[in-house]
Design a protein that fits this description.
single chain; 217 residues; mainly alpha; 10 helices; 74% helix
């Protein structure tokens, strides 16, 4: 992710999401080693699986744009659109990563660790991440409230309504439920694949709505 940040201009749509995600990922990694989580090994593995899905989507798009998940493609296709606010790109990235990537990353982590979503402290630890996100809220906002990013975001009417309408906590709750569904479908490969295809389509549609052009002030 540091490589992505170093290669892209600040206003690039992928850079807008990556900036925010880097803050969150580094904070969670710090807490893994601090005793914050009851099952640090599980959360560390989840962090890796989660990040890998993001990186895999970018890699797939670079090889063949049509090969990327729809949920990510909507952001990657429009990342150079100057008619969109930087914060819209960040929201679209959060939508793709939380609403699409989180569930399979969780299910994969349970398989890797020979456990299940409803065992031990997994759900409690998962919810603790919400506290981390709340604590980082001001830092995330500050990353957009400076220089050219702030000036660009100020140009768009209705942007705050779009931001207020997206709940990270609600998206993560849905991600947990979807992970439980995938876990129960782990022996039903065709159904699991159909579920993910449908989820990708739905999340991609939501991403398109987040990237609708707003009137300029």
């Amino acid at each position: 992710m540091h490589d992505i940040a170093g290669m892209l201009p600040a206003t690039d749509g992928l850079a807008c999401f990556n900036r925010m995600y880097l803050l969150v990922t580094e904070a969670v990694r710090d807490q893994v080693g601090s005793g914050f989580f009851a099952d640090a090994a599980f959360m560390a593995r989840l962090d890796v699986n989660f990040v890998n899905r993001y990186l895999a989507a970018i890699s797939a798009f670079r090889v063949a744009p049509g090969g990327a998940p729809r949920s990510w493609k909507v952001l990657l296709d429009n990342r150079a659109d100057s008619g969109l606010a930087p914060m819209q790109f960040a929201l679209a990235g959060m939508n793709a990563h939380i609403n699409y990537d989180l569930a399979p990353a969780l299910a994969q982590t349970c398989a890797d660790c020979s456990t299940a979503p409803d065992r031990g402290a997994h759900h409690a630890d998962f919810e603790k991440v919400n506290l981390t996100l709340e604590a980082l809220d001001s830092h995330i906002r500050e990353s957009f409230e400076q220089g050219v990013l702030l000036e660009l975001d100020r140009e768009f009417a209705g942007l705050q309504n779009l931001v207020d309408g997206f709940s990270i906590t609600a998206a993560r709750e849905a991600g947990w439920v979807n992970a439980e569904v995938l876990w129960r479908l782990r022996d039903e490969e065709l159904l699991a694949r159909a579920f993910l295809i449908t989820l990708d389509r739905t999340v991609g549609f939501a991403g398109g709505a987040l990237l609708v052009r707003l009137p300029r002030l």
